[in-house]
Design goal:
Blueprint lengths: L15 H9 L1 H4 L3 H17 L4 H16 L4 E10 L2 E11 L6 E3 L9 H8 L3 E3 L12 H4 L5 E8 L5 E9 L5 H17 L8
C-alpha cells in the first residue's frame, strides 16, 4: 500500500484568507487584540501577495511577517531549504532580520539535529517556547546578535506535499499558541494555493 500523500486539488487563491481564518479562529486562541490584529495583517498581506509570481511572494513574506510581529519579539524569520536531493544540509534563503547561520548540517534523526531538521524530516510544524530546551537546538545568536528565547518552524511544501524547505522564526519574546497555529495553517494553506519549488526560496 502506498502511504505517500498526494494532492489532487488546489485551493482557489481567492479563498485563502477565509480558509485560514476559519481554521485558525484567532478569537478563541488569544485575548490580545494587538496580537490578533498583527496576525490578521499577515493573513491579509499574504492574500494580497497571491497575485504575484511564487518567487516574488515567497521573497515578500519574511518582511511582511517581521514588520507585523516585531512588537512581539519576532526579530528574524526566513527560509532554510534543501538543494537538490541532499537532505544532509539546509541553506538560508530569503529572510528578514540580521544575518544568521548560512547553512545548517544534519547530525542525526529527529530530536538530535534541531527544530529545522525536525520540521523538515517529519513534515510538521515545530514550536519551542524555550528554544534551549529543544534537543539538538542550533543557535545562530552568535552570528545574529539576537537573544533568541522561542521559535516556530513550519515546513514549506511542494505540490506533492513534500517538505522542501522550512520557514524559521527566531523570537526574543515567548511565542503565543495563536502565533504557532496561525503560521502552521498559513504555510500549509499557501502550499495548496501556489506551486512552490526550491527555486522560489
Amino acid at each position: 500500500m502506498n502511504m505517500e500523500t498526494t494532492y489532487d486539488e488546489h485551493l482557489n487563491p481567492a479563498d485563502f484568507r477565509r480558509f485560514v481564518e476559519l481554521n485558525v479562529a484567532l478569537e478563541r486562541l488569544t485575548t490580545s487584540e494587538s496580537r490578533r490584529a498583527a496576525l490578521r495583517s499577515i493573513i491579509d498581506g499574504t492574500q494580497n501577495l497571491l497575485t504575484k509570481p511564487t518567487a516574488e511572494l515567497m521573497q515578500a513574506l519574511p518582511p511582511l511577517i517581521g514588520e507585523a510581529m516585531k512588537p512581539f519579539g519576532w526579530l528574524w524569520n526566513g527560509y532554510y531549504s534543501i538543494r537538490g536531493n541532499d537532505r544532509s544540509a539546509i541553506h538560508s534563503g530569503h529572510a528578514y532580520g540580521p544575518p544568521v547561520c548560512s547553512s545548517l548540517e544534519r547530525s542525526g534523526g529527529p530530536l538530535s539535529s534541531g527544530m529545522c531538521f525536525d520540521a523538515l524530516s517529519l513534515n510538521q510544524t515545530m514550536a519551542a517556547y524555550e528554544t534551549k530546551q529543544w534537543p539538538g537546538y542550533v543557535s545562530c545568536d552568535a552570528t545574529s546578535g539576537l537573544a533568541t528565547i522561542s521559535g516556530i518552524v513550519c515546513p514549506v511544501r511542494n505540490p506533492l506535499g513534500h517538505a522542501i524547505a522550512v520557514w524559521d522564526l527566531d523570537a526574543t519574546k515567548t511565542v503565543d499558541p495563536a502565533d504557532v497555529r496561525t503560521m502552521d495553517v498559513l504555510f500549509a494553506t499557501l502550499s495548496r494555493c501556489k506551486d512552490i519549488t526550491g527555486d522560489d526560496l
